TrEMBL record:
InterPro entries: AA-Vitamin_Transporters (IPR050638), EamA_dom (IPR000620), EmrE-like (IPR037185). The keyword Membrane applies. It is found in: Membrane. It is a multi-pass membrane protein. GO terms for cellular component: membrane. Belongs to the EamA transporter family. This is DMT family transporter. The chain crosses the membrane at residues 31-52, 64-85, 91-110, 122-140, 146-167, 179-198, 210-231, 243-260, 266-285. Residues 5-136, 149-280 form the EamA domain. Pfam families: EamA (PF00892). Keywords: Membrane, Transmembrane, Transmembrane helix.
Length: 313
């Protein structure tokens, strides 16, 4: 049996490196081509694995409904992420994704009639909104393009959280490989149609970094990452799994700084620390643990000077 700890670490590492890989996969090709090709390759891998393991994709009458709802987390969600990645650093992408627990809580109130908020979590939400305001102001100083990226990622969080809460409402316990493959099967046609309407042709020249990034995202970011996530959901409490939202942004900032040479300003670091603090408070961590995790984010101030995001046609 797979080690739950190894699976948990795998999810954290994959999610921490995915934002940078998304940026690299769009080098020389459009964001729509990059996300469509990634999901298409992942779908082929998933269907091949199901065939080798002799598993049926549809085993219950309402499987198609679960797959369709989960597909909203890929389309239109993932094109939003890829579009936003053109304008903001990879670490900021992961940081905004980390706000998902708050948005999920609000969605739970609206769709499930469940109120996960108490006094402590309301305070955490207020700190998160303040931190987001600091980040938004920092990105505004870089120009409109950076603000587009932040806004797009916030919209992506709403799609992801809405999808997660709707799946919880449907219930059920599907095999992770079937869930991931079925979700891709429902979303890839929409991605390909959108790509065809927007562009309709593949680029003539591909860089090796683009090809390797798409391959990494297809195999690890999509198939393995989702499967490991569903696996740890079966064996760990929701609160423990939710800690990935606290750890991943900090690691993603470090990856962006040391691997891609990204630089985060003192103001962005301050906003990031507030978001990390709010996530820790939301999950009920002790102040000492939150402080240790937040201090790691300071490592980003040692990177090279940050340049404003380049305009994208």
């Amino acid at each position: 049996m797979m080690s739950v700890l190894m699976a948990y670490l795998g999810v954290v590492l994959i999610w921490a490196t995915t934002p940078l890989a998304i940026q690299w996969s769009s080098g020389g090709i459009s964001f729509m081509a990059a996300v469509s090709l990634r999901m298409l390759v992942a779908l082929v891998i998933g269907l091949s694995l199901l065939g080798l393991l002799r598993r049926n994709l549809f085993c219950e009458a309402n499987d198609w409904q679960r797959y369709g709802v989960a597909a909203l987390g890929i389309f239109p969600n993932m094109p939003l992420v890829y579009w936003s990645a053109q304008f903001i650093p990879s670490g900021l992408i992961a940081l905004i994704m980390g706000l998902s627990p708050f948005i999920t809580g609000v969605m739970s109130m609206l769709l499930l009639r469940e109120n996960p908020f108490n006094g402590r979590r309301i305070a955490a939400l207020a700190i998160a909104l303040a931190g987001l305001a600091v980040i938004y102001t920092d990105q505004l100083s870089l120009g409109d393009k950076a603000v587009y990226g932040v806004s797009g990622m916030l919209l992506s969080c709403f799609f992801f959280s809405f999808c997660s809460v709707w799946l919880k409402r449907l219930g059920g316990n599907i095999d992770p490989l079937r869930q991931t493959t079925g979700t891709l099967l429902m979303s890839v046609p929409a991605l390909l149609v959108s790509w065809w309407l927007l562009e309709g042709s593949w680029p003539q020249h591909w860089s090796s970094r683009t090809v390797l990034s798409i391959g990494y995202l297809s195999l690890f970011g999509s198939m393995l990452g989702f499967s490991l996530y569903f696996y740890i959901l079966r064996h760990l409490s929701v609160n423990t799994v939710s800690l990935t939202y606290l750890i991943t942004p900090v690691l993603a900032i470090c990856v962006g700084v040391f691997v891609a040479g990204e630089q985060v300003s003192a103001q962005l670091l301050g906003g990031a620390a507030m978001v990390v603090l709010s996530l820790g408070l939301y999950q009920g961590l002790s102040p000492q643990v939150i402080a240790r995790i937040a201090r790691i984010a300071r490592i980003g101030s040692r990177g090279p000077r940050r340049r404003p995001a380049a305009d994208v046609d």
